[in-house]
Amino acid sequence: MVITADNPTQWVLTLSCIDGPGIVHAISGAVVAAGGNIEESQQFASHDTGRFFMRLQVSAVAQPETFNARFEQALAPVTERYHMTWRLDTVGRPVRTLVLGSTATHCVNDLLYRQRGGQLPIEVPLILSNHETMRDLADFYGVPFEHLAIASADDKAAFESRVLEVVEQQHIELVVLARYMQILSPELCEALAGKAINIHHSFLPGFKGANPYRQAHGRGVKLIGATAHFVTTDLDEGPIIEQDVVRVDHSYTPTQLMQLGQDEEARVLRRAVGWYAENRVLLDGDRTIIFK
């Protein structure tokens, strides 16, 4: 798959295939044949699945305006020989991202703040929410906002239908569940496989239902944190992209635990979205390969 952008200066190639000898040599040869120079290279061979993963950042030695075409031509025999799944993109191209939210605004605010400041290579054409809470925040950042209430199964079906409509019409590449507090249907999970990221709190033991931070306080937890993962039909069990924790003790109130937890959620989600947008996340079965 080749993705193009205006005035590209660097390209990023990601690929995966069955592991074997000669892959790195063949790819390097294709870069040279296309008139490119490798500026960054990372690779990993998974002994668990027998697959090989690679990420390259490449610049054109000359005629960058035609590099995509030359590189695709040079890559063709290599990708066919090794039956590769591959993607060629331009470095720094904003990834078109649909944000889903409910009432909590901390994750959405962090994503939009980082995007505005040039720290996150995403473009958000729409925030879609089942509550009105985020409208003021969306207006502040100048991002279109749409509210569709969910009070019944029919409402939920209509909301998910709208998600798929936006994905198609707006050429969405990534869907972020930024504390969107609805369980996606299996049909929507399958439609968004590999391009939907969710964030949730992480506790040991796990607390479900209302007021998880109050539950955590009542059990005297010592670690709180967050997990960002791909959305799958198995609730909160998709391939993990990023996790982090912070140590707490008995002196923290439920409110303080929630504040710390929300900070972790925003940070973890931001890193996961950023790595995805920079083509640093590759799937290896039920786990991820992250080229940082």
Secondary structure elements and pairings:
Layout: E1 10-18, H1 23-33, E2 36-45, E3 51-60, H2 67-82, E4 85-90, E5 95-101, H3 106-116, E6 122-129, H4 135-141, E7 145-147, H5 153-169, E8 174-177, H6 186-191, E9 196-203, H7 212-219, E10 223-230, E11 240-247, H8 254-277, E12 281-284, E13 287-290
Parallel strand pairs: 5-6, 5-8, 6-7, 8-9
Antiparallel strand pairs: 1-3, 1-4, 2-3, 9-10, 10-11, 12-13
Could you tell me the strand content as a percent range? 25-35%
Low-confidence stretches at least 5 residues in length (pLDDT < 50)? 2-7
SS-based class: alpha/beta
Number of strands: 13
Instruction: Sketch the topology as an H/E string, one letter per element.
Output: EHEEHEEHEHEHEHEHEEHEE
Termini, distance in Å? 22 Å
In order across it, which strands form the biggest sheet?
Answer: 7-6-5-8-9-10-11
Query: Mean pLDDT, nearest integer?
Result: 93
Question: How much is the radius of gyration in Å?
Answer: 21 Å
User: What characterizes the major β-sheet?
Assistant: 7 strands, mixed
Total helices: the number is 8
Shape: globular
Helix content: 25-40%
What does this structure look like?
This protein has 8 helices and 13 strands. With 292 residues, it is α/β, with parallel strands linked by helices. Helix 1 runs antiparallel to helix 2 (67-82), helix 3 crosses helix 8 and helix 7 (212-219) packs across helix 8. The two termini are 22 Å apart. Residues 2-7 have low confidence and may be disordered.
Defining traits:
single chain; 292 residues; alpha/beta; seven-stranded mixed beta sheet; four-stranded antiparallel beta sheet; 8 helices; 13 strands; 34% helix; globular; disordered N terminus
